Amino acid sequence: MLSYGRGDIEAFERLYLKHKGALYRYFVRQMGDKQLAEDLYQETWSRVIKAASTYQHSAKFTTWLYRIAHNLLIDHVRAVKPLSEFTEEQQQDMGQEPQALADSYRPDVELMQAYKASLLKTCIGLLPQVQKEAFLLNMEMGFTAAVISDIAGVTLEATKSRIRYAHRSLKDCVAAKWQGGSHEIQ
Prior knowledge:
The structure is a single chain. By secondary structure, the protein is mainly alpha-helical. It folds into two domains: 1-80, Rna Polymerase Sigma Factor, Chain: A (Orthogonal Bundle); 86-186, Orthogonal Bundle (Arc Repressor Mutant, subunit A). It is built from ten helices and no strands. The N and C termini lie far apart (53 Å).
């Protein structure tokens, strides 16, 4: 980033190529809306470009990049809805089992794994935004709690709590949905 700030366009290309896939997945997983994810993704890179000449190396570039992404995400969520509310669609999905299982139950391994993945995806979608973000950054991106706390601008203990609560909530949610939607599968 420092090289790009000094005018090295190829340095930006290397940064972009290294981080583009993971950053885009971050937004898709957080938002569940590919068009909105694309908009936030583009805005993140736009802000990186605008900040090139003033960038100061106070943290890893990855941490700085995800801090920008996090702030855009938080700004969007605050503008659209309070963090503690579910969307109408999520509320409707809470008691429903995935359509694939409802339409064609067969006790084979692939179907069972698809059902479990669907349960987990549904439950991740129901997490409060701050827990979902911490969980996904930790599990999918492999970031440590310390890096996540830098990205989110919260204490290390708050980040650890968010990850711990997310795990607990997911375990409880999946167990409840598993019992509620698959009595004969066990």
